[in-house]
Design a protein that fits this description.
Helix content is about 25%, strand content about 35%. It has about 260 residues and is of the alpha+beta class. The chain has two domains: about 15-80, Winged helix-like DNA-binding domain superfamily/Winged helix DNA-binding domain (Arc Repressor Mutant, subunit A, Orthogonal Bundle), CATH 1.10.10.10; about 100-235, Chorismate lyase-like (Chorismate lyase), CATH 3.40.1410.10. The relative contact order is 0.13.
């Protein structure tokens, strides 16, 4: 049976991983709602033209990522969404990955143009199926793979981006030098996840080992998002340095409020 649009058999990305991304997209967009069952294994096989083993591997990975849960004899259900708490209300927040000192090497896993899935389109503020660039890079330090980075960019903003190597191996520099795209800010979230088979193989770790997932939206002046980046960092090799500073204006407000109560 012919696979539904979204499964690309010519891609080097495993079929289960492609199906996984489709199901995650459906969960993020609300097509698969919390508490509701996902399609049965047989239905997923028919819809996407893949084997039962492929479906089972994708579902198992969803369980490892704590996006679904299984009830024996009934099916697999979407978990309630994780709570995202804004910690910048009182304190300014900045973070950086520590331990990346050394010889950094980028290895291209895949760079191709493809239609945007609904959730990716929503993140980028574009129409569904609009062409985007899907770029996956493995980052190594001193020969040790530390991070798997997947970037999504609207193709119309940077036509021909993947046709030749990036300037100095940097996507950031390439956007600025070739396309005059100057990133003025980012919004970043992070959470702990477990490595699936595909991610573990690339990062030279065991399936189920801890990873830190960073999701970053990069935007230009005016607020338009020009890049969505999802980076998986090895939990055994990376840590965060977080600096918190009290905002001066908020501090003055707190002092005045305390003074008024005395």
């Amino acid at each position: 049976m012919k696979a539904q649009k979204g499964i690309q058999r010519s891609s080097i990305i495993p079929l289960y991983y492609q199906l996984l991304e489709i199901l995650i997209d459906q969960i993020e967009t609300g097509l698969l709602k919390p508490g509701n069952p996902i399609p049965s294994e047989n239905e997923l096989c028919r819809t996407y033209g893949v084997s039962k083993n492929t479906v089972l591997q994708a579902i198992k990975t969803l369980q490892n990522k704590r996006l679904v849960y299984r009830i024996r004899g009934k099916g697999t259900y979407v978990m309630d969404p994780k709570i995202s708490q804004n910690i910048t209300t009182l304190l300014s927040f900045s973070s950086e990955v520590v331990g990346m000192n050394g010889a950094l090497k980028n290895k291209a896993v895949e760079a191709k143009q493809m239609p945007a899935l609904p959730a990716i389109a929503r993140h980028l503020g574009i129409k569904e199926t609009e062409p985007i660039y899907h770029i996956q890079i493995l980052r190594e330090v001193n020969g040790v793979p530390l991070a798997l980075q997947t970037s999504f960019l609207p193709a119309e903003l940077c036509p021909g981006l993947i046709d030749r190597p990036f300037d100095d191996g940097s996507l950031f520099k390439t956007l600025q030098h070739r396309f005059n795209i100057v990133i003025t800010g980012v919004n970043e979230t992070f959470q702990a996840v477990k490595a699936d088979n595909y991610e573990a193989k690339l990062l030279s770790i065991a399936p189920g080992d801890p990873l830190i997932l960073l999701e970053r939206h990069s935007y230009v002046e005016g607020g338009r998002v020009v890049e969505l980046v999802r980076t998986l960092l090895r939990g055994d090799r990376c840590k965060f340095n977080i600096e918190l500073k009290r905002d001066q204006q908020q501090e003055a407000s707190l002092v005045n409020s305390a003074g008024n109560r005395t």
